[in-house]
C-alpha cells in the first residue's frame, strides 16, 4: 500500500475535530514518527472513496493535513486520503500558511462535500452518502455479502453470523447502509482469516488469477470462487 500526498498544509485543531465528528472509526492505523494515527471513514461514505487518519489523543494541536491518493495491493481504484499529523512531529515542510478543511452534509443527507483550501490552492469533492438502514436491511446484507463476496465460506462457517448478527448489532438500525455493509464485511473478513483464507494481492489477480481469496494453508483443497 502506498500513499502519495499531493498537498501538505497546516490546519487548526477546531477543523480537525470538526472533521472527525463527521467520521466513524474503521480500525487500522498508520504511524508517523512514532505517533499512531487511527483510521476513520466519513459517516455514510464508502471507504473505497475516502479515508482519514487522526491522532489518537483527545487533545489535538495544530496538524499538517496531508491530502493525497492512497493505493492498495487489494483494490484497483485509488482512494482519497487525508492524514492529520501533529505539526510538532511532522518531518517535512508544509505548503504556505494555514489552510482549512470543511465537511458539509447536504440537507437531504444524501451527499457529503469535503472542501480544503490553502495558500495558493484548493480542493473540493462530493461523495454519495448511503441511505439509512432498517432491521431488514441488516439481515439482507448478511446474505448478499456471503453470496457476492464470501461464497467460499461454508454455511457451517457462517452459521453464527446468519443467526446472530442482526440481533447482536441492532444498534446499526438507523445508521447508514455504508456503515452496515462495512460492519458485515468486516465480520466475514475475520471469519475468512480465522478459517484459513487470505486475500490475494491485486498484482496477482491482474496477472491472471481471478480470485479474491485463496487458502492460506499449504496443500489445502478448499473451494474458491471468481470475483463477481
What does this structure look like?
There is one protein chain. The protein is α+β, with helices and mostly antiparallel strands and 228 residues long. The protein folds into two domains: 2-128, no CATH class; 135-215, no CATH class. 25% of the residues lie in helices and 35% in strands. The chain has five helices and eleven strands; from the N terminus they run βαββββββββαααβαβ. The strands form three sheets. Strands 1-5-6-4-3-2 form a six-stranded mixed β-sheet. A three-stranded antiparallel β-sheet has the order 7-8-9. Strands 10-11 form a two-stranded antiparallel sheet. α2 (135-149) packs across α4 (177-194). The longest helix has 18 residues, at 177-194. The radius of gyration is 20 Å and the shape is globular. It starts with a strand and ends in a 13-residue tail after the last strand. Residues 221-228 have low confidence and may be disordered.
Give the ordered list of helices and strands. EHEEEEEEEEHHHEHE
What is the count of helical runs? 5
> Which regions contain 5 or more consecutive residues with pLDDT less than 50?
221-228
Strand order, sheet with most strands: 1-5-6-4-3-2
**Helicity range:** 25-40%
Strand percent estimate: 25-35%
Question: Could you tell me how far the N terminus lies from the C terminus, measured between alpha carbons in angstroms?
Answer: 23 Å
Radius of gyration: 20 Å
Total number of beta strands: 11
Taking the sheet with the most strands, its summary is: 6 strands, mixed
Query: What is the average of the pLDDT values?
Result: 81
Oligomer: single chain
Count of all domains? 2
Shape: globular
The class by helix and strand makeup works out as: alpha+beta
Amino acid at each position: 500500500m502506498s500513499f502519495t500526498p499531493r498537498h501538505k498544509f497546516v490546519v487548526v485543531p477546531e477543523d480537525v475535530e470538526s472533521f472527525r465528528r463527521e467520521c466513524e472509526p474503521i480500525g487500522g492505523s498508520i504511524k508517523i514518527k512514532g505517533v499512531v494515527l487511527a483510521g476513520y471513514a466519513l459517516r455514510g461514505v464508502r471507504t473505497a472513496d475516502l479515508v482519514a487518519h487522526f491522532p489518537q489523543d483527545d487533545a489535538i494541536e495544530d496538524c499538517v493535513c496531508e491530502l493525497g491518493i492512497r493505493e492498495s495491493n487489494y483494490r484497483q481504484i485509488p482512494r482519497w486520503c487525508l492524514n492529520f499529523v501533529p505539526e510538532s512531529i511532522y518531518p517535512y515542510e508544509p505548503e504556505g500558511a494555514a489552510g482549512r478543511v470543511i465537511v458539509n452534509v447536504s440537507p437531504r443527507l444524501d451527499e457529503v462535500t469535503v472542501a480544503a483550501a490553502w495558500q495558493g490552492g484548493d480542493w473540493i469533492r462530493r461523495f454519495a452518502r448511503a441511505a439509512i438502514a432498517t432491521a431488514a436491511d441488516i439481515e439482507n446484507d448478511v446474505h448478499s455479502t456471503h453470496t457476492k463476496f464470501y461464497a467460499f465460506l461454508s454455511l457451517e462457517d457462517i452459521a453464527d453470523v446468519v443467526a446472530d448478527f442482526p440481533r447482536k448489532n441492532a444498534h446499526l438500525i438507523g445508521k447508514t447502509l455504508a456503515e452496515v455493509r462495512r460492519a458485515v464485511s468486516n465480520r466475514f473478513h475475520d471469519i475468512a482469516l480465522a478459517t484459513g483464507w487470505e486475500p490475494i494481492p491485486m498484482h496477482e489477480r491482474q496477472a491472471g488469477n481471478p480470485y479474491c481469496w485463496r487458502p492460506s494453508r499449504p496443500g489445502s483443497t478448499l473451494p474458491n470462487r471468481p470475483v463477481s
